[in-house]
Amino acid sequence: MTLFCVFRQGREKNFCESGWAVLRRYFVSNNLTSKQFWQEKWKFEDYQGWSDGSDNFVPEWHNILYGELTAYQGGDCLEVGCFPGRYLRYFERVYGMRAEGVDLMAPDENAVTAIHQCDFFEFRSDKKYDVVCSFGFIEHFEVLDDVIQRHVDLVKEGGMVVITVPNFVHGWRFCARRKHDKELFVHHNRNAMVLGNIENILKNLKIRRYKLSPVRFSDKSFLQVSGVKRIIGKSVAALTRFMPPLDQGLATEILIVLYK
Prior knowledge:
Strand order of the largest sheet: 5-4-3-6-7-9-8
Distance between the termini: 32 Å
Largest sheet: 7 strands, mixed
Radius of gyration: 19 Å
CATH architecture of the largest domain: 3-Layer(aba) Sandwich
Shape: globular
Number of strands: 9
């Protein structure tokens, strides 16, 4: 199919797309979910609204990025798709960052951070951030290059973009769910979980470098659990380090880090 470049909002894209990709961008719905979908989802989750900051919450990738993120201590952070606020509290608590979020869900009186209630694709800001991040967000869209580029556009030169997507495609952790959950890939873009697909997008971005890999079980942080659970988790992690297929197969998410 003929290749041609796309001009959008007066700005030339920095890469060319196939004719089908262009047609899909403009004539096929990009969003695989809706505000109603998320309201229904969170209705059945164990959380307490925006007050659920989970003071002891530590993401699985904490051990991998802690050293790099400390370089932005006290800086500005923006999380895309931030409800119910656990990651915002994490960045505030651990790195002393001024954290802001973008989400369709409205903040309540317990939200201590700045929440921009809007669709991310309608969010506009002259401000640039040291860290722009999203966790389990980009896989809910059809056009992945666009949503990733919007993350990059909001970060400062020298800043970082941190993105994670669930590892539903590879490994063993979600074998049963892949087989029995008929709605799994209705609301999730499978292509966002295929490393080769993501890497093809990252190669065309104007960034210094990138890091892309599953969060192996041996790299997982167990700081948010205590007692017996922490001992068991760290013991299993130590064992899986010597069994790479098992280590990779137990990965629950894929980590994408972009350096602008």
